[in-house]
UniProtKB/TrEMBL annotation:
Region (Disordered): 422-461
Subcellular location(s) per record: Periplasm
Alphabetized UniProt keyword annotations: Copper, Metal-binding, Oxidoreductase, Signal
Major localization listed first in the record, in broad terms: periplasm
Organism: Limnobacter litoralis
PANTHER family: FI03373P-RELATED (PTHR11709:SF394), MULTI-COPPER OXIDASE (PTHR11709)
InterPro entries: Cu-oxidase-like_N, Cu-oxidase_C, Cu-oxidase_fam, Cu_oxidase_Cu_BS, Cupredoxin
Organism placement in taxonomy: Bacteria, Pseudomonadati, Pseudomonadota, Betaproteobacteria, Burkholderiales
Record's protein name: Exported copper oxidase
Signal peptide, first to last residue: 1-17
């Protein structure tokens, strides 16, 4: 049997004979990679705050068992969300195979409504594509269906329902799929560290547990694998490692993913490996909705490097967005009084938000501070889609444990200048600067700008 679905007769026999015991995992910690004990050896991926689904070999077919079900996901210490996911978690476990593998996935539906699984990006028989109504009926609650195909194309893929999609994806149903190449090549090299995670977003009111699934744009929790900083694991690597990070986006907006201290290349997209001549160095790459991006670099700069989405509102946790800007307003002493009256009051843009953590603002039940995370120099003032790449020369190969904060060599940390600082020379506001203001003769100097507002005021002009 080559290059197609496994014969249908084999399916029913196997389904009747036995179905692999579902493996459930509920810890939000990053689980160690799952080294293959069959087939071609490869360096397995590490799913940030996630895990890889174990499989069994059955007559030459790799068998997995996914269980779609309600789950409780800790998004960060102190906050749990009631989501839907697979095998105890949202996102579901990463499925990892090798190009050419015959794969059989049993999907059991323990949700209160029908579902299906679409294998995003895969080449497969049309009837295995998982679009409810188009390629198959929905999998009814309590039923188990079987998908079978050959992993034909190496790369980074995703899986998600194609049934009541808006609700099911807003509730956290998604996962990653990695197909390693049969033979490593210049296009797909072996990496020393191979990380993966999904970008997702939730709208969960502080104090609530269940996402509002009707939300289209105003999400308040921007997550990597349904976790927010400081709940996202650091990416711990050894100096000079070749690091690959695979990112899939099933949130409702794009995320420019940015790394500090290194340049990377996008070595793969949804469509496969990027040809060598089409790669260029970057420090930020946009991952649009429904896309996968695979970035690679040599981690040759020691330190604790920020790694985050560059939309500043995506590195914050739940907050109100209807907060006025108080930059320039002296609110000395006011903040503390206000907090007593309005627990979620925050004066923004004055002394930084780190203050707020130090003030021990009372938080409602089940939420995380908007900007938080203690670093070696104080509050990191971040949340949401933020993590740290930790590059150490003494990190052992295969060791993903957190080495603690970077110990900077003497003389390599920014420092305060203690000498005399002169007042800066400023251009005068009267127009005697380097570019003096010119008025044409027919424009009065004290021109008032008249603004026409739409509506009733229009008729006044
Ligand atoms: Cu973002």
């Amino acid at each position: 049997m080559t290059g197609g679905a496994v014969a249908a007769a084999a399916v029913s026999k196997v389904a009747l004979a036995a179905i692999p015991e579902p493996v459930i995992q509920t810890s939000p910690d990053t689980m160690p990679p799952l080294h293959p004990d069959t087939g071609r050896p490869y360096n397995p991926v590490v799913t940030l705050n996630g895990w890889t689904l174990p499989w069994r070999m059955h007559n030459g077919v790799k068998e997995f068992h996914l269980v779609a079900e309600p789950v409780v996901r800790e998004m960060a210490p102190g906050m749990k969300a009631h989501l839907w996911g697979y095998n105890g978690q949202s996102p579901g476990p990463t499925i990892e195979v090798v190009e050419g593998d015959k794969v059989r996935i049993f999907v059991t539906n323990k949700l209160p409504e029908h579902t299906s699984v679409h294998w995003h990006g895969q080449r497969l028989p049309n009837g295995m594509d998982g679009v409810t109504g188009l390629n198959q009926p929905g999998i009814a609650p309590g039923k188990t269906w079987v998908y079978e195909f050959v992993a034909r194309r190496p790369g980074t893929f995703m899986y998600h329902p194609h049934a009541d999609e808006m609700s099911q994806m807003a509730m956290g149903m998604m996962g990653m799929w990695i197909t390693h190449p049969k033979v490593p090549s210049a296009l797909i090299r072996e990496a020393d560290r191979d990380f993966c995670f999904m970008l997702n977003g939730y709208d969960i009111e502080p104090g609530a547990y269940t996402p509002k699934i009707m939300t289209m744009l105003e999400f308040n929790l921007w997550t990597w694998n349904s976790r927010v900083f400081p709940g996202i694991s650091p990416l711990c690597v050894r100096k000079n490692d070749r690091v690959r990070i695979r990112i899939g986006n099933l949130s409702m907006t794009n995320h420019p993913i940015h790394i500090h201290g290194h340049e990377f290349e996008v070595t793969g997209t949804d469509g496969g490996a990027v040809p060598l001549g089409a790669r260029w160095p970057e420090v930020t790459t946009d991952v649009a909705v429904g896309q996968m991006r695979q970035i690679e670099f040599i981690a040759n700069e020691e330190g604790d490097w920020a790694f985050h989405c560059h939309k500043s509102h995506h590195t914050m946790n739940a907050m109100g967005h209807k907060v006025p800007t108080f930059i320039g307003v002296d609110h000395t002493g006011i903040s503390k009084k206000m907090v007593k009256l309005l627990p979620d009051y925050m004066a923004m843009g004055d002394r930084g938000m780190g203050d707020m953590t130090e003030m021990d603002m009372p938080l409602p039940e089940n939420t995380v501070a908007m900007m938080t995370g203690d670093g070696p120099f104080g509050s990191v003032e971040m949340g949401g889609m933020f993590s740290v790449l930790k590059v150490r020369k003494d990190q052992k190969p295969g060791d993903y444990s957190d080495p603690g904060w970077f110990k900077h060599p003497d003389g390599t940390v920014a420092y305060e200048f203690k000498g005399l600082v002169r007042e800066p020379q400023r251009n005068s506001s009267a127009g005697k600067g380097s570019m003096p203001v010119k008025y044409s003769a027919d424009v009065p100097k004290n021109l008032e700008v008249k603004v026409s507002k739409p509506g009733s005021s229009m008729s006044h002009e």
